[in-house]
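Researcher: Next sequence.
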Amino acid sequence: MSTGITFASIIILLVVKELNERYKKKIRTVIPIELILVIFGTLISYLVKLHDRHGVSIVGPVKRGLPSPTVPAFTNISSLLVSAITITVVSLCLNISVAKMFARKYDYKVRSNQELLAYGLGNIFSSFFQCFPSSGSLSRSMVQGESGGKTALIGGFSSVILAVVILALAPLLESLPMPCLAGIIIVNLKGLLFKVTDFAYYYRISMMEAVS
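Model: Next structure:
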């Protein structure tokens, strides 16, 4: 059942995205198929009881509300220092590479120092709410990009929507099927996966260029 839902989600997404691309000059607003799929997938899952009757994985209980701010404990700094440096280096390299990929796609420049400052301030602020280390998400960035988001404004908009969901609408997402989310991620990563074929082209030119 889960496999069937995943394939059905992928087919629906591919068909609607193709229609959006083909008729984008005739229609002013593209069809938000990801949002529609989430809404209808959740509704069908709730009504049909996909998890209870067919064992389909769902999001499950989502804790409502935000944690209260607390001062981080500084007693564990020495034991966390090496891990913190490793996470910082890996996250920054991934973030810069993703940012440059989108910069080439949408024709803008990336300032590495500004990126580092933004992630640093974001992690300092989130530490008071006991959050995990934050960094850019490749899958989420691809989903936002393929959904039509091209500027930093989409990040602020999605943050507001996410806050509303966490504070008020969290119980409504409990029945959301995980296969629907998997289909959304797979389809929006399609373009990135096809870029793997570019490795052979760059390797023939220069091995260092292919690695970079």
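Model: The CA atoms of residues 126 and 132 lie 8 Å apart. The mean pLDDT is 81.
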